Amino acid sequence: MRLTSNTMIDIPALSGINIDFGAYVDKMRRNDEAHRVNGIPDYAFSLDYKLREEIRKIPFFYSLSKRVAVQAEARQRQLLTAGAVLAGPNQFADLYDMTQDCAKRLGIGSPNLYILNNQALNAFTYASDTVTPTIVLYSGIVERMTPGELKCVIGHECGHVHNEHSVYMSIVDLLNGVFGSVGTLAQFLSASTVLLYRQWSRAAEITCDRAGMICADRVEDAISVNKKLAYGTFINREETLDLEDLRRQLDELSQTASVFTEVGSTHPASIRRVLASDAFSRCELLYEWRPELKKPGMVLETKEEVDAKCAKITALFKEQQGR
Ligand SMILES: [Zn+2]
After folding, report:
1. Can you give the residue range of the structural domain that contains 230?
2. In angstroms, what is the span from residue 125 Cα to ligand 1's centroid?
3. Across 271-291, average pLDDT
């Protein structure tokens, strides 16, 4: 039986429920359009968008990035098929269900989810326009995060798909030598371009931490993921990090030369991510996506106010704070 747009199935038990596929697609499209600004998701960190626009101006790099993304995706898929396990309804069903939930929440197609035997606290995503996106969870992160936190991790990775980051991330991976070609590529890029890519990458991570919070069952889970990334997690104790102590640590970081260790990094220091997540937890936009998570008496801030706070939290140098 072929279902096409506007085809209705007459099933008595479902009478009264609209199962018109065309209407469903229409609703998804309208929902997606309602949550887009400048062609990207409305929750994206403004610096992510600004720096992406700068990258797009670099001659031929966008098209090169696209080609790299397609090839990297195919290569990674082969490696994962040989060395990892694909989650589905019959294995890792809980993680599979979380992935379906997150994809539905953000309005993207359901990605493949692989579990890779590696004890690091890590996860990553490959995507291109041509095939189903792939999310990889390391076994270490599955073992050491709670179910609620894992949903935020998966939501974060779905955020990379939703924001179409992979095209740009493929170049960041090349620069990091993931594909063993860093020497070749670096010869064509100026130092300032390399730093631009890495600065964009750090901003993109803030965007996806927000996606993780939008997909969360509890806002606190999204913040505790970043706390655990900061201290590493323990088997026999939970630790509650103090946000004021973290702010003092960030002040100290900003005033010393140790900030230079972050210049070449693709991810913001974890303490910055904790504080940026905390700022987004009070953003009115979060509760437009998830009104049911709003608590009585909450004082909310606009997206612009939260972006300005996050720009300060993530700026390595004073000159970058007002970007
Ligand atoms: Zn990420």
Report:
1. 37-320
2. 8
3. 97
